[in-house]
Every structure is written in C-alpha cells, then in structure tokens.
Design goal:
single chain; mainly alpha; about 65% helix
Length: about 100
Amino acid sequence: MYGNPQKRSAVEVQGLRREGGRWLKELRDAAGLSQRQLAASVGADYYTFISQLETGRGRIPPDRYSDWARALGVNDKEFVREILRFYDPITHAILFQE
C-alpha cells in the first residue's frame, strides 16, 4: 500500500477495506438510502459500485469525498478523517494519532 514501510499484508489491507465498507453501509442505512439512491447522489454510474465498496472491494476516489459526505449527511472533514483510517492508515496515524 503506497510502498508502506510497515509492509501491510494484502490480508490486512483487505480487512481494513471490509471494515470501511461496513462503516459506509452504516452511514447509508442511517441516511435511509438504498444503494441505487446513494449511487445517484454521488454520481456513480452503477449502483453495484456501492455494493463493491460496502464489501471492501474498491475505494471512493478522493476527488469524490465531499460528494459522499454530503450524500450521507456527514461533515466533510469527519468523513475524510474516518475514511483515511481504512484507505490510508499511515496518513491517518500521522495526522490524527498522538
């Protein structure tokens, strides 16, 4: 993962992605959105993209983070802070852990 000096294994990376997917699904459910509705809100061409993300197969493109936060009814900064935990844990640790 980005030349990670901690050498995260593919299994660890996939586990983080699945955890992130569960978090995204919780947000979607809390917002009362179906996968189709969320896909339309964030400009995804296919609702199956939402399913893939929720099962840990894929990532939200960083240039779409604000769209996702808005669609899910959460603050942009809080959304990015949390998504980094799953997508880029090294950057998250540098920025947010003491």
